[in-house]
Amino acid sequence: MVECAVDELDVIVIDAGGGSLKVGFSGEDLPRTVLSTAMSVVTEIPEDDEGNVDTTAQPKTLTYFGDEALQNASKGTLKLPLKRGLLHDKDSLEDVLEHALRSLLKVDYEELPILLIDSPLTPQHQRDFLAEMLFEKFKVRSLAMMNSAVLSLFSTGRTRGMVVEMGHGVTHAVPVFEGFAIPHATFRMDYGGQDITDAVQKIFKELPSLTAYQQHAHPWVMRSLKESLCHVAPHSLKEQLASEDPASDEERSFELPDGTIVQVDQQLRYGAPEILFAGGDRSLPKITQMGLNACDLDFRLDLVRNLVLAGGTSMIPGLSERIRNEMQMLVPPDLHRQMEVILDSQRKYSAWIGGSMFASLSTFEHFLITKQDYEEGKSSLSGVVARKAW
Ligand SMILES: Nc1ncnc2c1ncn2[C@@H]1O[C@H](COP(=O)(O)OP(=O)(O)OP(=O)(O)O)[C@@H](O)[C@H]1O
């Protein structure tokens, strides 16, 4: 039972991923706002009534955020603040966050504590920068920072388990013991939903049945195709392609932006997600096995019994069956027999949901770095942030 001691005090919960930024308030079931972590700046030269460039008019600079930024990317400069879990463009992160909080969430963030969720293995200097940005630029009054995998596990009501968190640019296997992630047993691979989208785009352009529609092969259209039709093959792509396509016409149909409906075959639907299994030592089953092997023998049973899939990319159907099948070759039979793959229906937002729950607990305030802590510890910021960040 979650004990709520900060009833009159909401906490702003922010899960800043490379693909999407999720923001909302503690105690709520889902983030209020989810937007692609992107902005683009487009300079437009106004046209006259006949559609000719008006050389006398001042050029207009337009800034787009989220999906609009992706859709307008080709007209200007696309800025992606985070890439593969790492801070890539500090200024645009500030702008996207400000837009999400001020314009979309419509909150006076200076008034409320903030819980910032970050990726496992986020470098300390990145956490320091984020703390500095929130205290100095956003003028927040207090801040907690927490590991997304711990919170994803917490969202399922567990404090022990192996979290396989699959995001947009990175995937992590994170063993968690009594609410603490084990850093030396955490493994990552630089593959995620973005690579599946890229694979969808590549196959889309090459498939003879789809070549007539190449003008639609924009990343945002391909992402939508992926999210609606992709599927993980239960054993291998080869085996899947050799069998009859199990999908109905409806399950293979995709509507392009101009309204055309195309039929998408197995090569694309099942082929693109194979990137998660193809990386040798950096494949999904392999990093899970490495995480297990790096933990104490006594603890491994708990881990395989609580193998939690989390993050947006874990929404692809068929993952659980494939992981179970692949792990059969990688772990001893007695462990494999006990394996339980947990797929929560809300796993796309599991870290945010865990954060929302955690920030509602009476103990949450112990994790807050206050403005005063920050000011006092500024000369050695890492000390303050590392001591309190979880
Ligand atoms: N139904 C779905 N099927 C397949 N993929 C999906 C689905 N829904 C979302 N995704 C993918 O999940 C990814 C985003 O997941 P998530 O929000 O967990 O990542 P992130 O936190 O932004 O990224 P990262 O953890 O890499 O920083 C995107 O690539 C998106 O296309």
Task: Explain how this protein is built.
- The protein has helices at residues 66-71, 90-104, 124-137, 148-155, 193-206, 219-229, 237-242, 249-252, 266-271, 284-293, 297-305, 319-327, 333-337, 350-358, 371-377, 381-388, and strands at 12-16, 20-25, 33-36, 39-44, 60-65, 77-79, 82-83, 86-87, 114-118, 142-147, 161-166, 171-177, 180-181, 187-189, 253-255, 261-263, 307-310, 341-342, 369-370.
- The protein is of the alpha+beta class and 390 residues long.
- It has three domains: 12-45 and 58-148 and 351-388, ATPase, nucleotide binding domain (Nucleotidyltransferase, domain 5), CATH 3.30.420.40; 157-191 and 280-343, 2-Layer Sandwich (Nucleotidyltransferase, domain 5); 193-276, Actin, Chain A, domain 4 (Alpha-Beta Complex), CATH 3.90.640.10.
- The protein is flat, with a radius of gyration of 22 Å.
- It starts with 11 loop residues before the first strand and ends with a helix.
- Mean pLDDT is 92; it is low at 1-8.
- Adenosine-5'-triphosphate binds at residues 17-20, 82, 85, 119, 167-170, 192-194, 223, 226-227, 311-313, 315-316, 348.
- Keywords: ATP-binding, Hydrolase, Nucleotide-binding.
